[in-house]
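Input (structure):
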């Protein structure tokens, strides 16, 4: 039986003009995960990743830490939803930069509301696919992996939205639970599915074993 390792990208640049860029901490997180896997002798037969910069930068850091790489399958279906478009769909007026704890919480409360409306089909954010198409893109990648890579170790690097959607599909969760899973995914967290030709099964969710040391616990981030 193979294992699919789903990794959320390292810390990006939340609150900056260009979010789609790993921070210095995010780059270090990615390298650390690769080092952790190298220490345990883990190898991947194939790698899947979204095409966003933070996905590719995270993968580069993991490979640096592992000292090895595998064949890459880039899939736009693993790209994140556009959170700014979602927010504009329910709050057209500009929002202040979320640079305080109160504004940070307000930002994510609005985002959860927008996600629920998008998933329910009541809003159509500009430039975004509908929820069925977004979810279908994730499902297509999972089906490809299930059929083509049973019995192998596969790495998948993506974002909180696609990963929580994948977990929700495997577990059959409601939209509300899928959103809750999304909001809890931490940077560089690892979730695992077992792979066989009939199904994918969830084994772990949102783990950070590679940061569970006195040196690295302060590296844990969420945004």
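Output (sequence):
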């Amino acid at each position: 039986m193979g294992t699919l390792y789903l990794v959320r990208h390292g810390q990006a640049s939340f609150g900056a003009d260009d979010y789609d860029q790993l921070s210095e901490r995010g780059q270090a997180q990615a390298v650390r995960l690769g080092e952790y896997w190298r220490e345990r002798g883990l190898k991947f037969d194939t790698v899947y990743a979204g095409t966003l910069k933070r996905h590719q930068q995270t993968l580069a850091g993991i490979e640096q830490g592992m000292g090895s790489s595998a064949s890459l399958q880039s899939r736009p279906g693993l790209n994140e939803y556009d959170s700014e478009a979602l927010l504009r769909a329910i709050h057209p007026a500009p929002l202040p930069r979320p640079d305080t704890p109160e504004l940070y919480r307000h930002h994510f409360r609005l985002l959860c509301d927008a996600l629920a409306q998008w998933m329910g089909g009541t809003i159509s954010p500009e430039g975004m696919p509908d929820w069925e198409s977004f979810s279908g893109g994730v499902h297509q990648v999972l089906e490809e992996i299930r059929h083509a890579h049973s019995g192998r170790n596969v790495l998948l690097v993506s974002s909180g939205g696609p990963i929580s959607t994948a977990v929700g599909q495997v577990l059959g969760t409601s939209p509300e639970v899928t959103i809750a899973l999304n909001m809890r995914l931490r940077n560089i967290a690892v979730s695992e599915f077992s792979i066989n030709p009939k199904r994918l099964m969830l084994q772990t969710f949102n783990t950070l074993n590679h940061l569970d040391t006195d040196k690295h616990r302060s590296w844990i981030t969420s945004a």
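Notes: The chain has two domains: 2-80+131-219, 82-127. Strands lie at 2-8, 46-49, 71-74, 153-158, 190-195, 200-207.
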